[in-house]
């Protein structure tokens, strides 16, 4: 059997309008006893756990699966129960629909107009490392504001401040953000390094690939080899 980790889906609950909490579902090909994991991440905090296919299909996880586009796991669980045996991770993966979205994409699809209140609020949130405020502010950013914020970043600032910059700009792809993220690769904070890798490679699906059981895995948070 192949080994590795497959991100099956990510999403947000419908009531989470601000998209503060990222949900994910993953398949661990080298953990046949509990091959599936559910993760929940908000700010720099995360929780997760391993499950069997039958446990994953319990009604209490229905909304989580739906939010991540993984309702097909319920069908796989029904087939497993009908077969009278435990499916391997590869057999579970075979139930996955051909067209599924697994990438974590930048949140801002339509750039908002410049709100004059955003920049001072961003400055205050950066200085206080207020991650909840920074999360809300991400939806108010546009290219003009990102450029202004990036101009104020300094490489000799303390990591507490630089980590806050990485959190605020974690889904921005403007050229002015790249020096900030290059520096963030050296951060002592694992989340900052993970954000930097996604931005610098322009591949947001890597975030899920760097997780194990719903949490970032130190061994996996590294730039992919060419």
Question: Any overview of this molecule?
Answer:
By secondary structure, the chain is an alpha+beta fold. The protein is 38% helix and 15% strand. The chain has helices spanning 53-56, 62-67, 72-83, 89-93, 118-128, 131-137, 143-151, 159-168, 178-184, 190-201, 206-209; strands at residues 5-11, 21-28, 36-42, 45-51, 211-212, 215-216. The strands form two sheets. The chain has a four-stranded antiparallel β-sheet with strand order 1-2-3-4. A two-stranded antiparallel sheet has the order 5-6. A hairpin with a 2-residue loop joins strand 5 (211-212) and strand 6 (215-216).
- Please report the distance between the alpha carbons of the first and last residues: 26 Å
Per DSSP, what share of the residues sits in E-state strands of 2 or more residues?
5-15%
Mean pLDDT: 84
Radius of gyration: 19 Å
Structural class: alpha+beta
Provide the succession of SSEs: EEEEHHHHHHHHHHHEE
According to DSSP, the number of beta strands is 6
Global outline: elongated
Short description:
This protein is of the alpha+beta class.
Please name the defining characteristics of this protein:
four-stranded antiparallel beta sheet, 11 helices, 226 residues, single chain, alpha+beta
Outline the fold blueprint:
Layout: E1 5-11, E2 21-28, E3 36-42, E4 45-51, H1 53-56, H2 62-67, H3 72-83, H4 89-93, H5 118-128, H6 131-137, H7 143-151, H8 159-168, H9 178-184, H10 190-201, H11 206-209, E5 211-212, E6 215-216
Antiparallel strand pairs: 1-2, 2-3, 3-4, 5-6
């Amino acid at each position: 059997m192949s080994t590795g980790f497959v991100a099956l889906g990510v999403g947000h609950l419908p009531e989470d309008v601000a998209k503060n909490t990222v949900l994910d579902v993953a398949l661990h090909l080298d953990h046949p006893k509990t091959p599936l994991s559910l993760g929940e991440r908000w700010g720099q905090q995360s929780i997760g756990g391993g499950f069997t296919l039958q446990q994953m299909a319990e009604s209490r996880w229905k909304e989580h699966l739906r939010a991540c586009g993984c309702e097909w796991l319920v069908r796989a669980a029904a087939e497993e129960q009908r077969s009278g045996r435990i499916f391997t991770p590869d057999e579970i993966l075979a139930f996955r629909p051909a067209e599924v979205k697994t990438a974590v994409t930048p949140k801002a699809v339509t750039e908002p107009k410049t709100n004059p209140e955003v920049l001072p609020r961003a400055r205050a949130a950066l200085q206080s490392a207020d991650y909840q405020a920074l999360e809300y502010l991400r939806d108010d950013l546009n290219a003009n504001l990102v450029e202004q914020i990036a101009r104020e970043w300094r490489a000799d600032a303390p990591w507490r401040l630089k980590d806050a910059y990485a959190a605020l700009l974690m889904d921005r792809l403007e050229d002015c953000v790249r020096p900030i993220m290059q520096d963030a690769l050296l951060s002592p904070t694992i989340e900052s390094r993970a954000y930097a890798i996604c931005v610098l490679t322009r591949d947001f699906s890597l975030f899920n690939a760097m997780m194990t059981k719903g949490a970032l895995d130190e061994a996996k948070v590294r730039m992919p080899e060419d």
